[in-house]
Amino acid sequence: MNVRRSAAVLAAVAVIGAAIPAAAAPSPSQALPSALYGDKDPEFDGVWRQSLALLAQDTVGEKPAAKSVEWLVRQQCEDGGFAAYRPDPTAACDAKTMLDTNATAAAVQALAALGGQDAVADKALGRLKSVQNEDGGWGYSPGGASDTNSTSIVIGALAAAGEKPDQVEKDGKSPYDALLKLALPCDGDGDGAFAFQPDRKGELAANADATAAGVLGALGKGMVTEPGAKSDATCAEPGTPKQAAVNGAAYLTSALAKDDNHLMSAMAGAEPQPDYGNTADAVVALAAQGNTAQAEKSVRWLEKNSASWAAQSGPAAYAQLIFAAHATGTNPRDFGGADLVKQLNATGPAPQTAGKAQSSDEKPGEKDDSGSFFGVWWYVGVCLVAGIGIGFLFTGRKKQQQL
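Structure for Prenyltransferase alpha-alpha toroid domain-containing protein, as requested:
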């Protein structure tokens, strides 16, 4: 991220067409909330990037600024869900407020890690459970087919809050049942990968972005994970979540090795280019599964090559790199000579452990003045120009519905 919505961006580009205007940054005159991380238009990723920034700070032992945590809490709607961004949190959510499972689950992971926000996290989890699909999974919005990315980020939220994902069922189906339906066999195209969703014919196609998410989901883990026990298991019939994770990791290992230890962007209409965000996600997934050799090779590649991408993409990109460093035992304060923690902190309010404790001084109703049209084109343009390709989330933006 960064805007981190690669699956949705691919769909949006296919619908919008190839004529993409040049990327632009918001005008300096546009007011953003003082507690928000990043200086880009937050319309589509405000809650997402804030959640990742706070989660990354907690991961490295920093205590986030109080006002930044409060900003995230105030983004929650009365029913417990989160939208991508609410410019005026004092205004009640209504039928026009498009909530989404991805923002909600990311917020839960951050707030659960920080502690002290159990009521907020529990309310969000209740909302997520209420919109679980009959197959046990989640789509970006209710009514859409379950997808690997959304299902996995919700599994991570459940686990972070101390719940057992396999016991969260709808009509007798758990999230793991949904993931197994999206796992490809080892023979033929795909070689054990996860698909994002079935296509219109009901067929599955391998997707590295979804596979990174699916491995973590099948393992019952969130975005922050410790290195797993070394595993040399090979691809086999994906009859269990554990085996599906093994298979997905084998696919990622092969895909990373094919292109000099990184993934390539699959964005329609774009020139082939490295996909830094998805590479970082793949590192986390491989480390969690125990495929440590390839994870270490790829994190070394990120150390050498990701600086410009992260600087352009912003707080969520720094967070992704911090998660990759943490998962592989790499020092995030000396990541190829860069201090990722310092760089992340510089995109928003200083954490309490990096300066004096802060209280909330955000003014109700502070908002970005950019319109929806600007936001869409800036977002898609940056992805194409910068090769952001970012991350395993954000599914079905073109079919947004109320959560």
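Confidence is low (pLDDT under 50) at residues 1-29, 355-390, 392-403.
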